[in-house]
Amino acid sequence: MLWVDKYRPKTLDKVLVHQDIAQNLKKLVTEQDCPHLLFYGPSGSGKKTLIMALLRQMFGPSADKVKVENKNWKVDAGTRTIDVELTTLSSTHHVELNPSDAGFQDRYVVQEIIKEMAKNRPIDTKGKKGFKVLVLNEVDKLSREAQHSLRRTMEKYSASCRLILCCNSSSKVTEAVRSRCLNMRINAPREEEIANVLEFISKKEGLQLPSGFADRIAQQSNRSLRRAILSFETCRVQQYPFTVNQAIPPMDWEEYVSEIASSIFKEQSPKRLFEVRGKLYELLINCIPPEIILKRLLYELLKKLDSELKHEISHWAAYYEHRLRLGQKAIFHLEAFVAKFMSIYKGFLIETFG
Amino acid sequence: MQSQDIRKWFMKQQDKGTGNGNSSKQTKSSTPEKPSALTPQSGKLVQGMQECSGRRKTSKYFAKDGKNAKDEMEVEESSTEKKGQRGSMELTKVKSPPGKKIHKLENDDEDEDFVIPTSGKGSVDTTPNKKLKSGSGKGVAQKLVNESDEDDGGKVQSKSKSAGRGRGRGAKGSSITPTTTKGMDVDESDPEDMDDNDANSIKSGGRGRGGRGAPAGGRGRGGGGRGGFMNFGERKDPPHKGEKEVPEGAPDCLDGLTFVISGTLDSLEREEAEDLIKRHGGRVTGSVSKKTNYLLCDEDIGGRKSAKAKELGTAFLTEDGLFDMIRTSNKSKTSAQISKMPVDKVAPSPPKKSPQKSGKTEHAANLVARIDVKGLTSRASSSKRKDQSTAQTWLPWTEKYRPKVPNDIVGNQSLVKQLHDWLVNWNEQFLNTGKKGKGKKQNDSGAKKAVLLSGTPGIGKTTSAKLVSQMLGFQTIEVNASDSRGKADAKIEKGIGGSTSNSIKELVSNEALNLKMDCSQPPKTVLIMDEVDGMSAGDRGGVADLIASIKISKIPIICICNDRYSQKLKSLVNYCLLLSFRKPTKQQMAKRLSQIAKAEGLQVNEIALEELAERVNGDIRMALNQLQYMSLSMSVIKFDDIKQRLQSNSKDEDISPFTAVDKLFGFNGGKLRMDERIDLSMSDPDLVPLLIQENYINYRPSSAGKDDNGMKRMNLLARAAESIGDGDIINVQIRRYRQWQLSQIGCLASSIIPAAILHGQRETLEQGERNFNRFGGWLGKNSTMGKNYRLLEDLHVHLLASRESNLGRAPLRLDYLTLLLKRLTDPLRVLPKDEAVERVVEFMDLYSISMEDFDTMVEMSKFKGHPNALDGIQPVVKSALTRAYNKGSSSRVIRSADLITLPGIKKAPKKRVAAMLEPVEETLAEENAENEEEISSDTEDQEEELIDSDKKLQADLESLNSKGIQVQMELKGSGSSSSAKKPPSGRGKGSAATSDGKGGRGSRAASKRKR
Predict the structure, then answer these.
(1) Residue A135, CA distances (Å) to A37, A60, A70, B798 in order
(2) Which of A177, B286, B555, B596 is the one with CA 20 to 30 A from B276?
(3) Tell me, what's the ipTM?
(4) pLDDT digits over B179-224, tens only?
(5) Domain A252-353 class in CATH
(6) Is domain A3-185 classified as CATH 3.40.50.300?
(7) Pick from B725, B806, B860: CB nearest A287
């Protein structure tokens, strides 16, 4: 089993980071009622882990008995019926789903399916709670309409249902939804915390951890605990015993993005732009989300960029990311960003070096 | 036309020297590529020319008068036969060389004479001559006021005539046996040139077929063809692009001149230069030949063209020179201004410079004489036609000039011949064998009883079919789309009164009857089935019936269709001899068109006709219609007229997205009107933006002008890219929120703005790439991406189903994948085979990863230029892994999460249960999606486990069974160990019975993997 899964804390008491939040949650739940919750924070900070631990706290071990279903709903949307297919993860007490998977039909998922689920009270009489829990992932990716539909549902069926929303950025959740929830901000763990966790794991695994190695992994992890643990294990697979200056293998796609960045730096020409397009396509095809590509690309570009350009480039990156979300064909906007960067950088080079 | 004028001058001179007898023979000899004769009377020259130019305008009257005169002349010569004409042509051809030879000798002397005295002025003198060419011939005529009417008429006639004739002969030249080898140089060069031209036109034709469609704007054959086929890499931008004013000249000032463009010009793009030359009546070819008058280049790049030009003594002309030529032609209308023309070489100046102004009056008489002689030969055919035309002017030209003999058919002569042969042999081949024994198959398997002519509309399929049959004395029966061509009535006996097809059947099978009625000479019939690909809805079973008819037919059947590859004709093709008509070349068409134009008294120059032929895309019928239409409003048609008219015409046609993008990005793209642009981009509002997006990087924007470091281009690219992004955003609004009123602005943002910013020359970015617009890559990439997301989702669900992890899809790809893949592949690389395989399978089982998921992961981590995850793994190991995995699959704890419908459930819930996991302490129930064969052992396993497990399990099992799901249980820890198959025995009855009773078995059988 992977270490990430193996050492995932199962109860609120066992969490290593965010202990204060865990304790608060525990108190919140033990008082027999629970408001709607909105967990937000960067990926790898432990939102999911906390939610699962919370559910276990609420419903006991039966919350672990989940089944995976791939359901097909027929939603009646006025003039036509729409087929929506969703994967749900459900136990007797909770249903977890990812409504944004339905793409631009997410509105119907929220309007019909979630409402349907929320309406029904749990039959389980033994259950301690009189409500069931709906866990919605990636709420920030829901379209505006879907979020609007959501808020009504949250109010109307609050007697029988609690929503736990989970997302990366609360800014992409409408204020109406946010105000109906108890917002739980889950910070990215600090590097020391990450290092602590890694040491904990190595102790459990009985590994020799050279001093400073955990810190290095923590540094490279971008403050994502999941990343840290995964790359820790990758190092373990790659080479054991560890050496102090052992290279920490980067993610395959990150490596590729950094290659793109350096090729952009090397030459700014239509030809290069064309090549970059091909590489971006490759990343997209390999299921790397375009926002992540853009972010990473910016990160790599900023590394080598002259400081006077940094602000401008960041501005453009944000600009194109916004457009990326408004649009549909990600490559257009990624390419536009690259073209913009090339033109700015080229101008800068010519200006500086003639 | 110009060259023909000059001939007269030559002739006159010749007459002086060699006497009248030669005059007619001379006409042909002076083809433009011949080094010209410069007059010895250089002093007089300028003056003479001035006179001419002064008269230039007035001479137009004479042209008109000439027409009247022509008619008169024609009456005289109407008796002469075409054949005779041709014969005499050959005569002249053969005989001409001696005269010419002498002439050449003279020229040499004269050249020297000429150059020395006027050394400074040499270049000066030559120019105006040329500009006056169009007028020069007529200028003479004016002097002979008395005779001029008749005279000029003759000239007009002979001019155009000989143009057509000369070409025609050039094509046929090879068939004429040269009697005097010495003098054949010139004549031989004709076919050569024709070849050049042909090659050229084929090139451009090929381009059209390649999906580019009609070239944008004025992109002509030379440059266009070139760009299309050969990658010349970087042709530099003109250094002073757009900085010079392009002159406007007299429309015909370059008439008869042939140009070749080489290298980079000073301020014009090649296409622009070509357009300019064509507009002024000049001809642009791709390679240098003897016919070439000028090599247009600003720098001697020493390529093949310039080498050849030097070898042939072709004059070099700079762009400024060209401008001057054009400009002066304009000025000379009012006053004969002498401008300087920087022709690099004076000596081998083009033949047009040779008009001798001296002794015009003396020659006048000769001229008349010559015309008499010439008229006999040249006007015969046209006069004949003319008579006809006056008789029936109301006919559309397409009917009026429908070919009367097979030789008249433009192009495809070999196919016509084939058709002819087929028809000739038909009777012996099929009827005679038929007599020997009924139902006997044709002995020659290659011979077909029917023929299928295919080709684009308007290239003469029907005409040739009819003509050939007529010529062979067949009576033709034509059935086309206007007739109902459904399946024949079952009862043919009902007779001819029924549908057309019945009558066809009659026709086809009634040969015997015909024979009886007229034994001596059976009237032969041929059935022409026109537009067979148009057999559709109404004509049910038409094609099948046609095939049946072909099988039993006793008369030849000619089927005609446009698209041979049409699905409907698939079956028919097997029964027919296939003849695919090709589009005639534009030269062929122009030749024919000029004949017709002449017959109708329409003045059109050849360049214009070629342009017309090119624009109508080989459709001669359409060309004729256009021509007739234009003849209503004007009697003189110029290059620009045709260009303009057809441009507005082509708008109404369907254009492919490629053509649209081509036009938008073409060098003329900036001159299109806004509505034209919208039309173009709206021709396919989905595809055009994709094509634009795919290709915009490839264009070197002409608006950037001089752009040393590519900075401007990069800026423009960024702007275009942003605009394309806008287009995408608007598209979302349109599609998602149905804001269709935005479609125009969407068009603007996604297609028009990028094209407006970047239109220019296309260049290739990759080695070996063809310089065509690529098809948009987005569609393909998007579908691959969709597929990969689906696969990733599968993997995701599997991982979730393993219950070991609770992760999202994005983190799975971004974070987990690297490690998962390492865990899966690294052991295979380092550890010994068995151990590695065992470990990996164990890991896969733990996370419910199937072999397919494994492949998915490998596929998804592939990046170009990076090592594949599977590199370094022995194939043996890999196959061992697959084997081991498959071996374990019988008892796999894994639950493939493929979507499985559960037919056992009567209620048929809306949901399709993929994988259900009810973890109960240490046990795991899972759905089994394996094959039926394994079911028995599965149930045994089940039973065994059942014995061990507690009661609760039983309850679970039953609850699951009740859902019609096949369940297998195992102690989780023994997942891999229990993979050993248990021998089937009778123990299974208990549980099997339960599941049977619940209909579980049935569902199991049905719930096979849906992969």
Answers:
(1) 9, 17, 16, 20
(2) B596
(3) 0.90
(4) 333 434 444 444 444 444 444 444 333 333 333 333 333 333 333 3
(5) mainly alpha
(6) yes
(7) B860
